[in-house]
Amino acid sequence: MAKEDEFATDRVVLETTAGDITVEIETERAPITAANFLRYLDEDRFDGIVFYRAMALDWEQPNGLIQAGVQYDPDRVLDPIPHERTSDTGVLHTEGALSMARNAPGTATGDFSILLRAQPSMDADPQSSDPEEREGYAAFGRVIDGMDVVRAIHAMPIDPDKGEGWMKGEMLADPVTIVDARRLTPED
C-alpha cells in the first residue's frame, strides 16, 4: 500500500477563536466523506459553527476528542451521506484524525470530531459480532498543523449540566467558534 502522502488530499484551514487548525482531507481514499466535508466548507456552512464538545477518555492523557458541526441547524444541515468504513478506505483513527459524527451508519451530516490520540476502537472491525463495531466511524482526514489548538480546546472548561444523555457533561462551557473554514491553495 502507498504511503499516506501519496494519496490525493485537499488542505483546509479551520480558523477558530482559539487559533488555526490545518487539516488534510482524504479526497482519494475517502471520497464520499471528503466530498461531504468540502461541500459544507465550500458553501460556507462551517463559518460561524462551534466546537461544542470535549469528550475525555481516562487513559493516556490528554485523550479523547473535540467535536464541531452544524448540530442539525436547518439552515446549514445537508442530507446524510453513505457510510465509508475505515476497513475500505484505509484512513484510520490515528492521532489528529478527523472523523464524521453519526448516530447509525449512513446518518452523518455536518458534525465531525478531531481525535487527541489514536482510537482504533473507532475503526471498522469487519470480524466483530457487534454491528456498530463492524461499521466503525468514517475517518476522512488528519491535522497537519494546530494540534496545540486541538489540545487547548479539549482542555477548556466543560459545563456539567449541558448536554443530553451520554453527552451530558461533555459540552464546553464556552464553545469555540470556527470564524472561517477554507481550502488552502498550493501556494499557502
Count of DSSP-assigned helices: 4
Mean pLDDT: 93
Helix content: 10-25%
Question: Which shape, going by the Cα principal axes?
Answer: globular
Order of helix and strand elements from N to C terminus: EEHEEHEEHEHE
Instruction: State the major sheet.
Output: 8 strands, antiparallel, barrel
Uncertain regions spanning at least 5 consecutive residues: none
Oligomeric status = single chain
Please provide a written account of the structure.
Strand 1 (10-16) and strand 2 (19-25) form a beta hairpin. Helices cover 15% and strands 30% of the residues. It is an alpha+beta fold and 188 residues long. The model has no long low-confidence stretch (mean pLDDT 93). It has an eight-stranded antiparallel beta barrel. It is built from four helices and eight strands.
Brief rundown of the structure:
The chain has 188 residues and is α+β, with helices and mostly antiparallel strands.
Notable characteristics:
single chain, 188 residues, alpha+beta, 8-stranded antiparallel barrel, 30% strand
Per-chain topology:
Layout lengths: L9 E7 L2 E7 L5 H12 L7 E7 L7 E6 L16 H4 L7 E4 L10 E5 L15 H5 L3 E7 L1 H8 L16 E13 L5
Antiparallel strand pairs: 1-2, 1-8, 2-7, 3-4, 3-8, 4-6, 5-6, 5-7
